Amino acid sequence: MRWGRLALALAGIMLVFGALIIGAAAMAQEKDRPPAAPDLTAPDFTGVTTKTAANRLVREGRLVKIHLFPTELGGPAKDRYNIVYVTPEAAEARSLMIGTLEADLEEGRIDQMRIMPDYKGTSIVPTRIRFKAWHSQRAGGAYETVLEVW
User: Fold this and answer.
1) CB 105, CB 84: distance < 8 Å
2) What pLDDT is recorded for position 33?
3) Which of 50, 52, 70, 114 is least buried, going by the fewest C-beta atoms within 10 A?
4) Are 150 and 109 within 8 A, CB to CB?
5) What is the C-alpha to C-alpha distance for residues 119 and 124, in angstroms, rounded to an integer?
6) DSSP string of the chain?
7) What pLDDT, on a 0 to 100 scale, did the predictor assign at position 69?
8) Which of 48, 106, 115 is nearest to 76 (CA)?
9) Dihedral (C-alpha) 73, 76, 77, 81: value to the nearest 10 degrees?
10) Using CA atoms, how far apart are residues 57 and 64, in angstroms rounded to an integer?
11) What is the pTM of this model?
């Protein structure tokens, strides 16, 4: 009986040791593997250089038209320079961010805002939009975020 338990314990130790060797070998193979191919499904809007092209992508559901300076926070609704195109995911994230900014505005934590879009080449679709909000009379409490579009 005693030898049976010893043999069982030895078998268990050998199993663990074998698993460690196999795991180490797998890690070594992973290290030697070439880097993964780039994500070819990531959107690329560098060729979108006209409103006609952007509106076609809006109809296809790949872009959404938004107001750069949110109308919910006092941005001009009818100013053609306040219109930009973003991905649906970016538009959704922007909506959540606007909710936070609206609450900060109502509670008096902010009274100023600056919005800076970044573009790639001649594309009219921003790659990202930087939002910065603060209170002109109070130190601290500034809100800064970057909305990644593509």
Assistant:
1) no
2) 64
3) 52
4) no
5) 7
6) -HHHHHHHHHHHHHHHHHHHHHHHHHHHHHHHSPPPPP-TTS---TT--SHHHHHHHHHHTS-EEEESS-GGGT--SS-GGGEEEE-HHHHHHHHHHHHHHHHHHHTTS--EEEEEEE--TT-SS-SEEEEEEE-SSSSS--EEEEEE--
7) 95
8) 115
9) -120
10) 8
11) 0.70
- Number of neighbouring beta carbons within 10 Å of residue 84: 22
Residue 32 neighbours by CB distance under 10 Å: 7
Q: Encoding tokens for residue 103? A: 């609450």
pLDDT reported for residue 75:
93
- Residue 145 to residue 150: CA distance in whole angstroms: 16
Rounded-to-integer distance, Cα 149 and Cα 87, Å: 6
Decide: 119 and 137 in contact? Cβ < 8 Å.
no
Say if residues 128 and 94 touch (Cβ distance below 8 Å).
no
Tens of each residue's pLDDT in the chain, 150 residues: 454 544 444 444 444 444 444 444 455 555 666 666 665 677 899 999 999 999 999 999 999 999 999 999 999 999 999 999 999 999 999 999 999 999 999 999 999 999 999 999 999 999 999 999 999 998 877 889 999 999
